[in-house]
Amino acid sequence: MAEPNARLLLEDVSTTYLSDSLRLPVLDKVSLRVGEGEFVSLLGPSGSGKSTLLKIAAGLLKPDAGRIFLNGAEVSGRAAKVGYMPQQDLLFPWKTLLQNGALPLLAAGAGKKEARSRVSELLPVFGLEGFEGYYPRQLSGGMRQRAALLRTVLIESGLMLLDEPFAALDALTREKLQEWLLGILSRFKRSVLFVTHSIDEAIYLSDRVYMISDRPGKIVQELSIELPRPRSRTVVTAPRFMAYKELLMGSLDLH
Ligand SMILES: Nc1ncnc2c1ncn2[C@@H]1O[C@H](COP(=O)(O)OP(=O)(O)O)[C@@H](O)[C@H]1O
Ligand SMILES: [Mg+2]
Questions:
Q1: Distances, alpha carbon 222 to alpha carbons 33, 148, 156, 230, 251, in Å
Q2: How far apart (Å, rounded) are the C-alpha atoms in residues 150 and 175?
Q3: Is the Cβ atom of 55 under 6 angstroms away from ligand 1?
Q4: For 191-213, how does the pLDDT look when each residue is reduced to its tens digit (9 = 90+)?
Q5: Taking the domains of the chain in order of start, what are their residue ranges?
Q6: Mean of the pLDDT values across residues 166-195?
Q7: pLDDT band at 50 (very low <50, low <70, confident <90, very high)
């Protein structure tokens, strides 16, 4: 049953890809929830079905079995109104930063002028002021990811689904963007389901972490991260952080 206060609830979601005559089981009875205002990570190895699960949560893919609830209402088939940031193909190379940013608003029926002014307002918050006329290839990796996040935040929905947004960045840029994301969220107050294969990233960012096994993905551990907020970078050396890390590493080995 749908729980009150759950932004997202998945119940026993299973799915299989069919290609040629091969059946590839990808998710095996996955259940998870994201509460109001909660930052939840889905952590697991490459190929475990994380992106598939996010597409299902975004309503882009229909699972073979299981139920999905958004804000307490069951989702059936059609694309849900959530802020979904896919793992790839984030920005159109032939559109400027401003045009890329305005796309979801235009798609939602906003006028060109309004869309552009709403994107412009957010540019300073995302550290992109002055770059509105740039094309994606003219931006650094970190800037491209911030632009894609800006676009996701523009979708006025309480839930953001982020698929490894920082995975392709160098370590320093990645750490900076993690801190920056926490700042952004304290301003925009969204619930987040965040996909990553980095244990450190999951612990640093999250209120709760689900660990998913190798394909077919099953939830093998759920861990509440009780580290105070706001979190500074130094938290990664705290004994409690280390203890969480050991726990999660252990469950990766076991399964
Ligand atoms: N559209 C598809 N058709 C067939 N197999 C797919 C498709 N998308 C993903 N897969 C396979 O499903 C498995 C899980 O993929 P994915 O959800 O992308 O995992 P992750 O995001 O955890 O790396 C992988 O083995 C992948 O090759
Ligand atoms: Mg993936």
A1: 11, 29, 29, 22, 10
A2: 18
A3: no
A4: 999 999 999 999 999 999 999 99
A5: 1-82+159-225, 89-156
A6: 93
A7: very high
Which of the two residues, 126 and 5, has the higher pLDDT score?
126
66-116 pLDDT per residue, tens: 999 998 889 876 666 789 999 886 799 999 999 999 998 998 899 999 999
Residue whose CA lies nearest to ligand 1 atom number 16? 49
Q: What is the DSSP string of 83-146?
A: EEE-SS--S-TTS-HHHHHHHHHHHTT--HHHHHHHHHHHTTTTT-TT-TT--GGGS-HHHHHH
If you take atom 20 of ligand 1, which residue's CA is the nearest one?
A: 47
What is the pTM (predicted TM-score) of this model? 0.94
| Ligand 1 nearest atom to the CA of residue 212, by list position | 22
Which CATH number is 1-82+159-225's, of 3.40.1260.10, 2.60.40.420, 3.40.50.300, 3.40.50.1220? Answer: 3.40.50.300
Q: Is the CB of 92 under 6 A from ligand 1?
A: no
Determine if ligand 1 sits within 6 Å of the CB of residue 17.
yes
Q: Give the residue, out of 26, 56, 62, 193, with the most ligand 1 atoms within 8 A of its beta carbon, to mutate for a pocket test.
A: 26
DSSP 217: B
The residue whose C-alpha atom lies closest to atom 3 belonging to ligand 1 is: 17
Measured in Å, residue 218 CA sits from the centre of ligand 2 at 15
User: Please, which pLDDT band fits residue 20 given cuts at 50, 70 and 90?
Assistant: confident
- The tokens for 196 are 């990553």
Nearest residue by C-alpha to atom 11 in ligand 1: 47
